[in-house]
Amino acid sequence: MPWFYRHIRQGDQLIHDTDGIELTDLDADRADALEGIRDILAEAIKRGNDVPLDDAIVITNKAGRELMTIPFIEALPPRLRGAA
Questions:
Q1: Where is the DUF6894 domain (predicted)?
Q2: Which of 40, 47, 72, 82 gets the most CB atoms within 10 Å of its CB?
């Protein structure tokens, strides 16, 4: 199974994932990453912090090649995306 690395882009800064995760394919990693984004957003809301909708997850393979970028706003339900 392939390894995926999820780096977090906050503005111009990229926080590197050095551990990675082994999943069946990119679709499975995308679904899992969206769950993780929702957890981050929920925690920010619970704490009364700003919600980091401008952040993104950048998924790369083991070689560091970018495979996909998922803006945090994509984790919101469609009706809330338009309001954000």
A1: 4-72
A2: 72
For residue 50, give the DSSP letter: P
Report the mean per-residue pLDDT for the chain: 94
Query: Within 13 A of 63's CA, how many CA atoms are on the CB side?
Result: 3
Domain boundaries, the chain: 3-80
| Residue 7 · residue 15 · CB < 8 Å | yes
The structure's pTM equals 0.89
Q: Which H helix or E strand runs over 4?
A: strand 3-10
The two structure tokens encoding residue 11? 């503005």
What one-character DSSP code corresponds to residue 10?
A: E
Give me 45's structure tokens: 């809301």
